[in-house]
Amino acid sequence: MRNTTCSKLDTIFVDRWSPRAFLPDKLSHEDLMTLFEAARWSPSCFNEQPWHYVYAVADEDLARFQSVLNDKNRSWADKAPVLIIAFSRTRFRKNDKPNRWADFDAGAAWMALNLQAHRLGLHCHAMGGFDEDRAYEVTGLDRDQYKALCVIAVGRRADPDVLPEDLRARETPSDRNPLDDMITEGCMTE
Ligand SMILES: Cc1cc2nc3c(=O)[nH]c(=O)nc-3n(C[C@H](O)[C@H](O)[C@H](O)COP(=O)(O)O)c2cc1C
User: Fold this and answer.
1) Of all atoms in ligand 1, which is nearest to the CA of residue 16?
2) Selection from 50, 4, 9, 53 nearest residue 33 by Cα
3) By alpha-carbon position, which residue is closest to atom 31 of ligand 1?
4) How much distance in Å is there from the Cα of 124 to the middle of ligand 1?
5) Domains of the chain
6) Of the candidates 104, 112, 160, which has an alpha carbon nearest to the alpha carbon of residue 13?
């Protein structure tokens, strides 16, 4: 299903995937901070580091973060022991000008966090299906300064049996489009 003919590719890229079945087991504080530390070392425009994470691990916080998710995502992500809301800071700190690269940089940081999770035997699953207004309400962040990008579930994988029936069959790593679909050599115009 998930294969590549590229023999030099690091297996981390193909082995990482986004399950929905999570064990409720708590993560150690050290593991969680290691994920954020991986994000911290990501490259960014002018080294602005425009990512910001608000996270929930305590049960009462998790309940409030779950209320940010749409129903479909909540039906599986309510088992995850960590929920992170990822934001980008929309303006540069040094001059308050709009940072049009902020989401690009926050995307790079999320992938670093995700790959580090994989190295620690954990899994992440990003969710765009959430209520933005509720994300600002729950976190208290100012929407004039921060853009709510995604909610990320983190934890250890569980048996697919823990999932609602309609999601069980989808609990397999997904494939990718061919490489030729995403690359173009040279100029496309005269
Ligand atoms: C920005 C973003 C939004 C996503 N939104 C959702 C979502 O709302 N619900 C969901 O179940 N998966 C969501 N996903 C997970 C993707 O469907 C998944 O990453 C993709 O199918 C590739 O699978 P893989 O991560 O297992 O390789 C999202 C992923 C990203 C990066």
Assistant:
1) 27
2) 53
3) 126
4) 10
5) 25-155 (3.40.109.10)
6) 112
Q: Where are the alpha helices (DSSP H) in the chain?
A: 11-15, 29-40, 59-66, 71-77, 102-119, 132-139, 165-168
**pTM, rounded to two decimals:** 0.97
The residue whose CB lies within 8 Å of the most ligand 1 atoms, and thus the one to mutate among 18, 84, 118, 122, is: 18
Write phi, then psi, for 85 (nearest 5 degrees). -100, 120
pLDDT by 10s per residue, the chain, length 190: 588 889 999 999 999 999 999 999 999 999 999 999 999 999 999 999 999 999 999 999 999 999 999 999 999 999 999 999 999 999 999 999 999 999 999 999 999 999 999 999 999 999 999 999 999 999 999 999 999 999 999 999 999 999 999 999 999 999 999 999 999 999 989 8
Q: Which two tokens stand for residue 126?
A: 């990003």
